[in-house]
Amino acid sequence: MRRTPRRIALLALPALVAGVVGTGPAGADPTTSTATAGPGRSQLEAQEQVRLVQLRLAGADMLDKVVAAGFDLEHGLKRVPTGIEGEAVVTAAQLTELKALGVEILDDGAGFEWSEEADGGLQGAAARTVAPASHTATVRIARADWFTTKGQGFLYVEARTTEGQQADPIVGMQVENDSGKGTSFGYARTMSRFVDSGQYMFHRNLFKLDKRPDQIRVTSSTGGVTTGPVSDWLENAPPPLTANPSYKWNFVDGYRHPQQLYSRANEIARQYPQIAEIVYLPNKTNGYQRKAQATIGGTGQEAVVVSSAAWGHEGGNDVTVEFVERPGANLPLAVEVAGKAVRVLLAKDASGALASTAAQVAEGLKTRSQGLVDRAHPYRTNAGTGIVRPTPGPVALTDFLDQKRVGAPEGEVPRGPATIPVLRIGKHRDGRKPGVLIQAQDHAREWVPATTSLEAAERLVHNYGSDKETKRIVDNTDVFFILSNNPDGANYSFYNYASQRKNLTNHCPDASADPAQRNSWGVDLNRNYRVGSGHDGYAGGSTVCTSGTYQGPEKLSEPESKNIIWLVEKYRNIKFMMSVHSNGGQLFWQPGAYIADGRITTPRPPLGDEAFYWQSAARILSQVKAHRETVVTPENVGGSSDVLYSSAGNVREDLYHTYGIYAYGWEVGGSVYNPATGNWQGGSFQPDWVGNPALVSGHAETLEYANGIMEMFRVAADWGQDRKKPTSQLVPGGGKSSGPVDVRFETSEPATIYYTTDGSRPTLESPRYAATEFREPGQVFHVTETTTFNWFSVDSAGNIEKNYDPTKNDKRNNYRTATITIGKK
């Protein structure tokens, strides 16, 4: 069976961005853009024509190499049995380079199909007689989730075999399901094997079904077999706040650039001073500004790249450079400056021939231009040995920021460094209530996260006086909104280059500093943090300054990332964080990065924290689904290095491991099931605002994911008010047995269990009850001799079972205990 064609991640393709308050920018198609360099300027400085291609990479190692080489791959990557498939925006030259790296080009943008063929056949294993699963079973079911969307049912299965790492022969797995309680197994399907960075992860698949099954059976080609129940995913969710007829919502009517976002944040603080204020972040950004530049003399050894000392808008755009040939012989190279006009008088040899090399001219400009020129160098990696020719006349330097899109008024974008405001909403903004940080638009081209976050802020202030649940949120949380954490890059995305991902800080050396590469400068802010950093050998951050995932010259090199650390250190009540991105429809947490050799991840959260993340995710995503039945599937939820790929130096990792903040990452704008075609339709970074309200639409995504942010506030409010102590038990419990016994711990809510088996008191230094494997439930202890378990549990809010104090050795010893006696009955 073949899966119907599915688009993974579409780029911005709006004809016009409509509905923006004030005069807004018009959209552009970055896949066909052929913007010129301006009147009289070299086409070398024009934005190169790019197009969208679909490609297949052999695996995570190749993905790392491609990203490190500077390619900007889409978020919508898809794991398939033969590697990773996805999309990239490339020039013709980059397409050739991708092929040289071994990347398989599937097509040039037309649809293609995902194969459901697994990489190991069962060859009749379904008919084999197998024994029931036991503690020695080679097959385990991690997830079996049922959900419905747009009138269609789906079953998602993850299963793992202990023999999955072996490659010859590759272990295959098959799943069967019943048709409801009491029915027999059938409908056998082969599952796909998921290998990441050379390591076996699990087998998994998403299947379309007409009826909800009650049980599944998974069989390995090596003989292992197990059965398990099917759970509901996002089914029977409570109605969202918007279901209340008097509830006010749907405030945002179009995309917003940073100035509009910040202006509205300030207006909210002025309109609702009793519950809102502005906190200004201390580190100013680079600014929507660039040095003025020109590439003079082509691309050969005679070419010179010139950059102004002043920012373009502060005088750099007024500088001209002219290369002049004088009559005569034996003339030295000289530089004349008159106002902002620089004339390089080219040298001549004894025969009267021109004798100045590009390297000599560049040095003369740097040292003798009276401070007008900051950088001058040969083109890219050239040595500059070619003889420079005179120019037809003065060449004007420009910062290339004067090419506004249609509808953008002159002077609307401030050019200097920007101060980022934080909109703080809460009745009690004194540190008593749990803080929630919503950070949007780390990546400039992601426009929906900003409107989603603004919509959530508007709902809080407009409903505070009339809606009981909103009042509870505002009275019991302290919310910090960063509506755009990358204003410089976002402005560049709105007004110059729609696909801009990074900020505008240019750390590139001379070899990458010519203006034809201006759309590739900047730092990926979500690779610039300290934990699991690319600087420490973790995969997913690039050292190439033109890469889409360039991590910066050092950790926290960028003002935008420094600001986040400042904020969480100043406001220590921040206990929750959501970094809102697009697109892809994932909700994830730690671990977010790994060292590729051996796939060594950053520390995984304890089982209790992992369970709390999953519980919160189900609540958040249920509210997303409630708007128009958009389902973020279980395969897209979990540790981001398991769900997507390794992203070294991401903000979530730093905030969780350094400050204990429950930090989530969200890729809004996921695939939506289209019942008319029977396939899943992907989103984009800048979908048409109106679009198809049932499928891809910036407006619909804004509303549904704002539902999810509101639910996150409720999660935080509940967490802050949680005084209930968890309970736990050993299952099946203590007692006598004539032979070995399998036992496990269960808790009444997400909680971390600390335990001992040597008779000692359990403390916070004792072993923690762990998962059998990542994305699986708690481990099973195979007890073969008499053993006493002593333990206690701690929930996510810090409540300890039975008021036990693990820090004190008092006589009460009110921890839990159970003894399993192994011997003849």
From TrEMBL:
<dbReference type="InterPro" id="IPR000834">
    <property type="entry name" value="Peptidase_M14"/>
</dbReference>
<feature type="signal peptide">
    <location>
        <begin position="1"/>
        <end position="28"/>
    </location>
</feature>
<dbReference type="Pfam" id="PF00246">
    <property type="entry name" value="Peptidase_M14"/>
</dbReference>
<dbReference type="Pfam" id="PF13290">
    <property type="entry name" value="CHB_HEX_C_1"/>
</dbReference>
<protein>
    <submittedName>
        <fullName>Orf(+21)</fullName>
    </submittedName>
</protein>
<feature type="region of interest" description="Disordered">
    <location>
        <begin position="805"/>
        <end position="825"/>
    </location>
</feature>
<dbReference type="GO" id="GO:0008270">
    <property type="term" value="F:zinc ion binding"/>
</dbReference>
<keyword id="KW-0378">Hydrolase</keyword>
<keyword id="KW-0645">Protease</keyword>
<feature type="region of interest" description="Disordered">
    <location>
        <begin position="24"/>
        <end position="43"/>
    </location>
</feature>
<feature type="domain" description="Peptidase M14">
    <location>
        <begin position="377"/>
        <end position="709"/>
    </location>
</feature>
<dbReference type="GO" id="GO:0006508">
    <property type="term" value="P:proteolysis"/>
</dbReference>
<dbReference type="GO" id="GO:0005615">
    <property type="term" value="C:extracellular space"/>
</dbReference>
<feature type="compositionally biased region" description="Polar residues">
    <location>
        <begin position="815"/>
        <end position="825"/>
    </location>
</feature>
<dbReference type="GO" id="GO:0004181">
    <property type="term" value="F:metallocarboxypeptidase activity"/>
</dbReference>
<keyword id="KW-0862">Zinc</keyword>
<keyword id="KW-0482">Metalloprotease</keyword>
<comment type="similarity">
    <text>Belongs to the peptidase M14 family.</text>
</comment>
<dbReference type="InterPro" id="IPR059177">
    <property type="entry name" value="GH29D-like_dom"/>
</dbReference>
<feature type="active site" description="Proton donor/acceptor">
    <location>
        <position position="667"/>
    </location>
</feature>
<keyword id="KW-0732">Signal</keyword>
